[in-house]
Amino acid sequence: MSKKYDVICIGAALVDMIAKVERHPQEDDEVFVSDLTIFSGGAAANTAFACASLGLKSAFLGKLGRGDAFGSKILDDFKKGRVSVDLIKYSDDQKTRSAYVALNEKADRRIYAHSGAANYLSENEIKSGELSKAKVIYLSSLKNMKPFIKAGIIGKKMGIPVILNPGMLIIDQGYESSSLLFKNIDILILSQKEYSTLMKTDKLKLSPSFIVQTSNKLFELGIRVLIVTLGSKGAFMQTEDNFDAIPAIKIEAVVDTTGAGDAFSAGFVYGFLQNLSFDFERLKNDVKIGHYIAGKCIQELGARNGIINQEEFNDFLEKTKWKDL
């Protein structure tokens, strides 16, 4: 059966307010903001936008405030980016809100997310008839896990691969709560901070051997692929039978890491969609595409300004011939 969408991205759409500061404040402290910029954001929304930029048929499913200014900006930017807005839900009671991002001169950031309407997406608004139109379901960063669990159950029943990049809003709820979601997804993408918090370790710099030693309980839940992103060191990927470290690409200058994980996910989704294969070597190539897209993203301010378009991406793929990734 022909699918209407390559990927449906479910989660939050917010407006990012990015404040440039020389340093982050200490307790009872104040810092000067040298510049304040407003962008459309939200983790799942960023990934939907990046997927569309790469040429995928991408749709966003989330909740906005009906007719408010932030929601209108998000919709306009989706439409300009060729992201389908047909599945978006609207709230008459809650407004579209924002994430406040403080970015210092070392590109180190602090994020305060006010989810607003986004967190009021209900499980009743996740419909099998809509999700059946996708080749892949992608979930990211909502404190309210109920709609994600429903989407995962639908994906499992319909044989649609489900990818989760949970974010700290989910991870902070603990392993027991998160496991209710994890058992309904196929591919789990975590940052090293998320993995460390989930496994209750003080190891902020993770080694591949540590991940292998501690990840068994994730595979017991039914997860097929675990990917832990390690910043400048690249990523570590594990299945029940294989594991490997995949190095990052070299970046000349990091400007802003906002949206890096979302861009990585978009690149990975693109690669995965080319064959929908769980073959380990193919998945490694998908991770490498994720590294490339994320590497481009962090060289510009904001989560979307560094995302390359389809023509630039096709040129990259032609030059690398895939096998050289």
Explain how this protein is built.
This protein has helices at 43-53, 69-80, 128-131, 146-158, 168-171, 175-182, 192-198, 208-214, 216-220, 260-273, 280-297, 310-320; strands at residues 5-11, 14-21, 33-41, 58-61, 63-65, 89-91, 98-103, 109-113, 134-140, 162-165, 187-191, 225-229, 235-238, 243-246. It is of the alpha/beta class. It has one domain (5-13, 43-87, 123-320): UDP-N-acetylmuramoyl-L-alanine:D-glutamate ligase (3-Layer(aba) Sandwich). The strands form 3 sheets. Strands 4-1-9-10-11-12-13-14 form an 8-stranded mixed β-sheet, sandwiched between helices. Helix 2 (69-80) links the parallel strand 5 and strand 6 (89-91). The two termini are 31 Å apart. The model has no long low-confidence stretch (mean pLDDT 92).
Topology overview:
Elements: E1 5-11, E2 14-21, E3 33-41, H1 43-53, E4 58-61, E5 63-65, H2 69-80, E6 89-91, E7 98-103, E8 109-113, H3 128-131, E9 134-140, H4 146-158, E10 162-165, H5 168-171, H6 175-182, E11 187-191, H7 192-198, H8 208-214, H9 216-220, E12 225-229, E13 235-238, E14 243-246, H10 260-273, H11 280-297, H12 310-320
Parallel strand pairs: 1-4, 1-9, 2-7, 5-6, 9-10, 10-11, 11-12
Antiparallel strand pairs: 2-3, 7-8, 12-13, 13-14
Helix pairs in contact: 1-10, 10-11
Tag the structure with descriptive keywords.
14 strands; eight-stranded mixed sheet; UDP-N-acetylmuramoyl-L-alanine:D-glutamate ligase; 325 residues; four-stranded mixed sheet; 35% helix
